[in-house]
Design goal:
The complex is a heterodimer of chains A (114) and B (113). Chain A has one helix and twelve strands; from the N terminus they run E-E-E-E-E-E-E-E-E-E-H-E-E. In chain A, strands 2, 5, 6, 10, 11 and 12 form a six-stranded mixed beta sheet that branches. Chain A has a four-stranded antiparallel beta sheet with strand order 3-9-8-7, with no helix packed on it. The mean pLDDT of chain A is 93. Chain B is globular, with a radius of gyration of 13 Å. Chain B is built from no helices and eleven strands. The model of chain B has no long low-confidence stretch (mean pLDDT 93). Classes of the chains: A mainly beta (114), B mainly beta (113). Chains A and B meet through strand 5, strand 6, strand 10 and strand 11 of A and strand 4, strand 5, strand 9 and strand 10 of B.
């Protein structure tokens, strides 16, 4: 079945450092890919998404490119801020084959120090 | 657009009791999803509705769990005879059929003593 694997955390960075959080997926169809973020004490928020191969999703300085050849959707940001400290979840959804339910990775906790 | 709301936000109950949670989706969304999230894990799919029809249930959803969406608007998730293993955050999300982006509510945190 479909699955998502994320790099384990926690990831601790200094402010203005470069961020990469790895995400790979297994899917039989043509899924859409998502990054959701969960700030402390808050609900899940959509950060960015990509719906087909080679699409790049971007938001708030974060980017991720849908790579079908490597089945990856790595999250990157050039310069992190303390306010980016949160848990980041990679997810996929195959609306044509699985009704659109989201399959999540286990999450990666990011801590950014001043 | 007021977003997805869930009620209650927190619920503490004793083992063996029944609990019911409510989710109000974004008004024009016809799909509604329930997920469960335990500490340190990503959310796991439980069930989803398109309008009032329940189209899929996960194997995680034992017979003690039941969900309804009677008029295709709000939904309820009931857990009967709660067990300590049911302690988790229960999340609701909604989406239109196309596009497929799901928007999440704040969740209901259940603690079973």
């Amino acid at each position: 079945g479909n699955s998502v694997t994320q790099m384990e955390g926690p990831v601790t960075l200094s402010e203005e450092a470069f961020l990469t959080i790895n995400c790979t997926y297994t899917a039989t169809g043509y899924p859409s890919l998502f990054w959701y973020v969960q700030y402390p004490g808050e609900g899940l928020q959509l950060l960015l998404k990509a719906t087909k191969a080679d699409d790049k999703g971007s938001n708030k300085g974060f980017e991720a490119t849908y790579r079908k050849e490597t089945t990856s959707f790595h999250l990157e940001k050039g310069s992190v801020q303390v306010s980016d400290s949160a848990v980041y979840f990679c997810a996929l959804s195959d609306i044509y084959n699985q009704g659109g339910k989201l399959i999540f990775g286990q999450g990666t906790e990011l801590s950014v120090k001043p | 657009d007021t977003g997805v709301s869930q009620d209650p936000r927190h619920k503490i109950t004793k083992r063996g009791q029944n609990v019911t949670f409510r989710c109000d989706p974004i008004s024009e969304h016809n799909r509604l999803y329930w997920y469960r999230q335990t500490l340190g894990q990503g959310p796991e799919f439980l069930t989803y509705f398109q309008n009032e029809a329940q189209l899929e249930k996960s194997r995680l959803l034992s017979d003690r769990f039941s969900a309804e969406r009677p008029k295709g608007s709000f939904s309820t998730l009931e857990i009967q005879r709660t067990e300590q293993g049911d302690s988790a955050m229960y999340l609701c999300a909604s989406s239109s059929t196309m596009p497929d982006t799901q928007y999440f509510g704040p969740g209901t945190r259940l603690t079973v003593l």
